[in-house]
Amino acid sequence: MPIIAPSLLAADFLNLQEACSMINRSEAEWFHLDVMDGRFVPNISFGLPVISSIKKATHKVFDVHLMIEEPEKFAQAFKAAGADILTVHVEACNHLNRNLEQIRSLNMKAGVALNPHTPISQIEEVLCDADLVCIMTVNPGFGGQKFITSMLSKIERLKNAIIRQNSKALIEIDGGVTLENAETIVKAGADILVAGSTVFNSADPEGVIVQLKNIH
Ligand code: DX5
Ligand code: ZN
Q: Given a cut of 90, is residue 216 above it in pLDDT?
């Protein structure tokens, strides 16, 4: 059974309280929070004050996905805001090993994300230093995009590399996850499914979370 991480990006920002209540009632274990700086990605989302506010309204694991330049400058601040897992992009880190160590030293789980064009070889040397590897299956910056199907073999190759190295890193899939493709994604090796529009655009978000959860 995959861990489900609904993404706040697709929620109604006028009703964050309702989004938090729905997540609390649901079977989702994690809450995925997409932070964008308008530099690393061509969009700006939300940041520290929103995360620290919703932290008071939910008890799920806060899975913070930083799509920002120089993420090391903000690790401490995101810990203070309530992040349990902090994921940085390999493309934004000149010193990835140090960045992951910094996150762990702040008592958060450390994640590393790869854009669709970034080969797995870029993170092979840090697979045992990461708690999570996030494979972007859309180009980051926006919700509601189509899953890039060539990423399925990338998930399989990552899974093999993790097994080869005896790493404990979990595989998170982010972008374009639907009720139709979720099973194939889990079969390819995914441990965590991020789902934004599939959950929040549904008339029955909690029901969709149950359906995603029951995939194996
Ligand atoms: C994209 C974000 C995703 C996004 C997923 O840059 O990292 O987490 O919210 O949204 P959907 O599930 O709609 O593709
Ligand atoms: Zn994300």
A: no
Q: Are 137 and 177 in contact (CB under 8 A)?
A: yes
pLDDT exceeds cutoff 90 at 62: yes
Question: Catalytic residue among 63, 129, 131, 174, which?
Answer: 174
Instruction: List the domains of the chain with CATH numbers.
Output: 3-213 (3.20.20.70)
Residue type, 82: G
Rounded Cα distance between 120 and 159, Å, is 10
144 ligand 1 Cβ < 6 A: yes
Say if pTM beats, i.e. exceeds, 0.70: yes
Q: Rounded to an integer, what distance in angstroms lies between the CA atom of residue 113 and that of residue 136?
A: 7
Backbone torsions φ then ψ of 52, nearest 5 degrees: -70, -30
> CA 18: distance to chain centroid?
21
List the structure tokens of 82: 């309530």
- Cα(131)–Cα(87) distance, integer angstroms: 9
CB 143 near ligand 1, within 6 Å: yes
pLDDT value at residue 209: 98
CA–CA distance, 12 with 91 (Å, rounded to integer): 30
Q: What are the tokens at 19?
A: 């989004």
